[in-house]
Design a protein that fits this description.
By secondary structure, this protein is of the alpha/beta class. 36% of the residues lie in helices and 18% in strands.
């Protein structure tokens, strides 16, 4: 059992809606490990109703798990860095769009601005990728982010190699273990599963 007693962990979600159920379980596991969680939702994760979850239910589940209302606006996440509010920030799921923004220094959503603000303190950013284009258009962004200091990846693999050969999805159940390793300054291995 991973112990993260009193670790302050940001739980940021972008819009790979089909993975939300698995990600909610990962947040619950972080909570069970003793972490204090701060929920952060991208504009789409906070507002788009899908066949997986209505937006209001997503917000409710995040509040139920973390005990806090999700941060959903730029002015709410900007203080994360200056006030050193988090020990680690996890983006799960991290879509191809979010990967590209992070790799290119674009901070125009609550999730990307939270990451920018957090990284200024040299603290770990943990990425749990979920993208149908990870082995095509998003491969460059993954490579750029892997070479950055303080950026760690949750191990990932192809989720449907024949039907979606360019798609990668993180092993969300490994988020607690990845966070513990990142807090110790190391990338969990093997990365490709």
């Amino acid at each position: 059992m991973i112990e993260l007693m009193d670790a302050r962990i940001g739980c940021a979600m972008s819009g790979s809606f089909c993975t939300f159920k698995a990600v909610f379980e990962a947040w619950r596991a972080l909570k069970a490990a003793g972490a204090a969680l701060t929920p952060i939702l991208s504009f789409n994760a906070a507002s788009v109703d899908t066949r997986f979850y209505p937006a209001a239910e997503t917000r409710h589940i995040m509040e139920e798990i973390t005990g806090k209302a999700p941060l959903m606006a730029l002015n709410q996440v900007e203080p994360i860095g200056p006030k050193k509010l988090l020990d680690a920030l996890v983006i799960a799921p991290c879509t191809g769009n979010t990967l590209a923004k992070l790799a290119n220094g674009i901070a125009d959503t609550p999730v990307t601005l939270a990451a920018k603000s957090h990284l200024r303190n040299g603290r770990p950013l943990v990425i749990a990728v979920s993208s149908n284009d990870a082995l095509s258009q998003n491969a460059r962004s993954i490579g750029q982010l892997m070479s950055m200091k303080h950026v760690y990846f949750v191990p990932f693999g192809q989720d449907d190699a024949l039907g979606k050969p360019c798609s990668l999805v993180a092993k969300f159940d490994l988020i607690p273990e990845t966070v513990a390793a990142a807090l110790a300054g190391r990338q969990i291995q093997p990365l490709l599963r």
